Amino acid sequence: MSMASGPDPIEQLRAADPIDADDVPEASLARVSARTQEHIMTDTQRDGESRSRRPLAIGGAIALTGALALAIAFGSGLGVQAPGPVAVAPSPSSEPESSTDPGLAGGGGMASCIMYDPAILPTFEIVFDGTITAIDGDQLTFEVNEGWKGVGGSVTLTALDTSIALLGPTPDFEVGGRYLVTAAGSTVNACGYTLDYDAETATSWAAAFGG
Amino acid sequence: MDHRRQVLAYAIRRTGSLPDAEDVTAETFAIAWRKLATVPTEPLPWLFAVARRVLANQRRGNGRRERLAALLRVDDVPTPVRVGEAHDGPVFEALASLSNADQEILRLVAWEELGNRDVAAVLGITPNAVAIRLHRARARFADALARMPSGAHLKYPDPSRTLTDVKGTHGVASEGVAE
């Protein structure tokens, strides 16, 4: 095969790039987030239907919390069959319109957002109220104050590298701090469903499990 | 950079249609959500690989719809439209003359600006295989460019055109996903 002389063909192709990623319009990204949300909520509803045969009292919990923007922790470990970790946006009083582009509410990066629904809580592998007793690098050891799912006593989980997770806020973990935690496998969910403890949210989490 | 931007740009480059690209991107991220355990630390090549498969599935779906439409004698099936500016014509024409595999590896390098290792991750082959394929694709592309008359027919949107122009297209302008 002969190599034709002339300008670098890769450079010629690069010059003809149809679009620069920086030029992708925000409105288009918002539509992507909304459609991703639709896909995920469909999955969640499907999962919820399959769980409805089990005695999970999640209905009451749905009423406890309004429309919160959530972000998906794409960097988190999670079983393929289970719905992924979903992260709570900073404020439970988010205005409804914030959910129209939940990606913005959840931060940049891979974050895509869905509406907060406590019914999702039981789909996580691990859900508890715990106090950190030790931190070793990214390993967080919790004393479980109340384990709603998957844990009891004490548990060591891995904190996400949020520079990878590219998500919204995560608690500033510190020894002695009390948190409401969900995890996928051994990894704490980024950006929510892992929150600084507060009694009101804890009550809503307990309600999601029939408490 | 927001990964959504990069995946959306990837899809726009391969569909020529903003609505179609948005669908592909949304499905890609929904799949990422379902398969969080398999998302690597550096997710972009993985996301491109997923988007590539979503595109392939979408095109298979389009093919089925078009065959069904033909059977039903429906005339409103979206078809690729001519977009772009003349000065890009030879480049796109030359690209379109290559195999799908050659097109995709060249696009990943030129447009997504991936290195061999990331291209390997997208295509599911080894970096050595990428190097070999890229060398050959590049040579074939150079030959094709040399054979192109000026003002050739365009198959892709042109970067100088606005997003409104891109959005205004309705069809799949490339067939470079399936190998």
Walk me through this protein's architecture.
The complex is a heterodimer of chains A (about 210) and B (about 180). With about 210 residues, chain A is of the alpha+beta class. Chain A has one domain (about 20-210). Chain A has helices at about 10-15, 25-50, 60-65, 100-105, 160-165, 200-210; strands spanning about 70, 85-90, 115, 125-135, 140-150, 155-160, 180-185, 185-190, 195. In chain A, strands 4, 5, 6, 7, 8 and 9 form a 6-stranded antiparallel beta sheet that branches. In chain A, strands 2-1-3 form a 3-stranded antiparallel beta sheet. In chain A, strand 7 (about 180-185) and strand 8 form a beta hairpin. Chain A starts with 8 loop residues before the first helix and ends with a helix. By secondary structure, chain B is mainly alpha-helical. Chain B is built from 8 helices and no strands. Chain B has helices at about 5-15, 20-35, 45-70, 90-95, 100-110, 115-125, 125-145, 165. In chain B, helix 1 packs parallel to helix 3 (about 45-70) and helix 5 packs across helix 7. The two termini of chain B are about 30 Å apart. The model of chain B is unreliable at about 75-85 and about 150-179 (pLDDT under 50). The chains are: A alpha+beta (about 210), B mainly alpha (about 180). The interface between A and B is large, with 57 and 58 residues.
